[in-house]
Amino acid sequence: MQLPREYILRFVVVLTSLIIVVRLFQLQIVDDSYKAYAENNALRKMVQYPPRGEIYDRNGLFLAQSKEAYDLMVIPRDLKPFDTVAFCSVVGVTREELVEGLAKARSYSSRRPSVLFKQLSKETKLKFEEYGFPGMYTQFRTIRSYPYKTAGNILGYVGEVNADHIREDNYYKSGDYIGLAGIERAYETVLRGNKGVKMELVDVHGMPKGAYADGLYDTIAVPGTSIVSTIDARLQLLAEELMEGKIGSVLAIEPATGEILVMVSSPTYNPDKLIGRDRSKNYRELATDPRKPMFNRAVMAAYPPGSTFKIATGLIGLQEGVLTPSQTYPCSNGYHFGNLHLGCHSHASPLDLSFAIQTSCNAYFCYVYRNILENRRYGDVKKGFDAWRKHVLSFGFGRKLESDFIGERNGNIPSREYYDRMYNGRWNSLTTLSLAIGQGEIGVSPLQLANFVATVANRGYYYIPHIVKRIDGKDSIDVRFRQKQYTDIDPKYFDIFAEAMWKGVHVGGTSMRAMVPGLDICGKTGTAENGQGADHSTFAAFAPKDHPKIAISVYVEHGGFGASIALPIASLLIEQYLTDTITRPAEVEYVKNKRINYPQYAK
User: Fold this and answer.
1) Per mean pLDDT, which of 133-137, 217-221, 419-423 is the most reliable?
2) pTM beyond 0.85
3) Could you give the 3-state DSSP secondary structure of residue 264?
4) What is the rounded radius of gyration, in angstroms, for the C-alpha atoms of the chain?
5) E runs forming strands in 128-276
6) pLDDT score recorded for residue 36
7) Pairing of the two strands 468-471 and 340-343
8) Are 228 and 468 in contact (CB under 8 A)?
């Protein structure tokens, strides 16, 4: 029996209505996600930024920490009319800054969130959320905090990534932060941690309504790994205080490990200047300062080492067999040969090797240098020069030491080819004589000088200088920092110079001002000639003489004689490090009150 068409149509209508009702029930009652989408119409993907790993000094003091901050985000499409006066008051910006920021956000995207204002404090964030400005929200970030306000050039700074960073490493996205200098840059992948993601439902006003799918699709941010540096924060602070009003560098190393105890580039800067809302303005001021506080002289500058280099000349002379410790040479206020005159200060003459180191005699080492180059077994001055240069390079001069500090420069130890080009192949030992006393074309960094002193302290070897002691509490630094790097000088010769440097401080010589009762300080002054003004003052030292714990190099541009300013700075730092006190307050005041005029750096 066939049903009437009327019944069939009624059945179709009822069935269709039932399907619609069931589907609506499923969408609105059974499936909460659809309900949420219908009510909120927005799913916000929020990056969870991890705090950067903390940086400690060697004694467990904080050098860099992470503190809570918030970026103010905006989605232009979701903006509603709001009280701009109240907004500016809460956030602490001008109306012009607000207008500019919103225009920039709209030009980027009307639908995607972008940063409107960076690094708000927690207090500002809470005030902002009380108002509930539609289309805006805050996103958790962290910024650096520097409890000791020191070691700006060591720690470096953190800033926003650029297009090159994003292209080179897909970890980074626009708005991310990255280490841009110092330890922050060298150990970026250790310190940065791993980002997480939070999926959040928001209403039509942009206000959060809870986690999407109960957090099923969220991932947790993994904090960065902490680092223990080799730096002694209190010694670093003292060194920076002593270098105020001076341009130059202080670098101290523990000879037994190669760990850098102090690295000062003066003038330095307070690392707090490169965090927070004023970072851009402060960066411009630092970058345009003619004294270049952001230029790390400790590893980037190349200076003539002056008389501290005489130690290298003497060691090479002994190794080459053209010098014995008892050999004497005359000095009549300098070295004289034909029309050539290289001056020296007054002292007893003739003199042997030890006394030449104690008194820093120029003439003595000119004789030694000529004997090295004119050694008969080479039969050619240029071959003798090649031998001299090979020894010099073995000390770590003229090349990068391969430390873990970014920005290290080679310095310069001139080659035979350089002089061939300069003099059309016509040159001899007299042409390059100033190299004997650390002048001429030689350029070394304070790091290389300190490493050289550590090499003498160790009697012929060094460990590659490094700035990180431990990572995440584990003794896990690169194996190359644990390997001895030997010079090609026989270790037996180094004791001669350690003894001579000790006598220069304790018996008689140019370094006597460095003496501290009870401390076996060994030192060598240097006065580096400077064609642009007063001579540079430098001093190299280590202590104690046996089983040394610290090797130090101080370099003060235009400081005059080595004993005048570089020496007392080094001596005070050695005393502080070895005894945890200073017994010469008058010396401290002298150094702090010493201000050097640098007209070439005037603004």
Assistant:
1) 419-423
2) yes
3) strand
4) 33
5) 136-145, 158-160, 177-179, 196-202, 208-211, 227-229, 248-254, 259-266
6) 45
7) unpaired
8) yes
